[in-house]
Amino acid sequence: MANKSTQPFHIRPATIDDIPLVINNITKEGDKDIRKHYLNPILSITLDVIESESYIALTEEGNPLGLFGFFEDCFWLHMCNEMANHPLAAIKFFRKWLKTQNKPYLWSHIRIEQTATLRMAKMLGFKIIRIFPDTYNQTFQVETVRLWIF
């Protein structure tokens, strides 16, 4: 176990080689979400890695916490099962890391049934702006935003 002054995680830029690791460890909620919107989860996550400023968070043992990134000013996240083993430490680590990024404005759309992702967004400082219908997926989307004041 890492001492309290040392974070047991690290973040690095994501690569195509990380996709099998993420796919094999994605949460059930995340897998269901990807399959609801896209036909092929592997291609969907590949597109996220290729077209975005993407990162992977890993434990000291190399287990993925999540794959996430920025597509312009949109923040996206694919949580992995390891997140359940370190929920508070991971949130604290991500919040600290996000503060180091030069992103004065971030937004995200989260499906209303993704309760774990909504809770995480709230803990990372995202605020709900509105809830709107997503007729393509026959559900509702929650629009969130995070602003930095300099």
What can you see in these coordinates?
With 150 residues, the chain is of the alpha+beta class. The protein has a single domain, classed as Aminopeptidase, CATH 3.40.630.30. The protein is 32% helix and 33% strand. It contains five helices and seven strands; from the N terminus they run E-H-H-H-E-E-E-H-E-H-E-E. The strands form two sheets. The chain has a four-stranded antiparallel sheet. It has a three-stranded antiparallel sheet with strand order 5-7-6, covered by helices on one side. The termini are far apart. Mean pLDDT is 86; it is low at 1-5.
Topology diagram in text:
Layout (H helix, E strand, L loop, with lengths): L8 E5 L5 H5 L4 H10 L3 H11 L1 E7 L4 E8 L2 E6 L7 H13 L5 E7 L3 H9 L3 E8 L4 E9 L3
Short overview:
This protein has 150 residues and is α+β, with helices and mostly antiparallel strands. It has helices spanning 19-23, 28-37, 41-51, 87-99, 115-123, and strands at 9-13, 53-59, 64-71, 74-79, 105-111, 127-134, 139-147. A hairpin with a 4-residue loop joins strand 6 and strand 7.
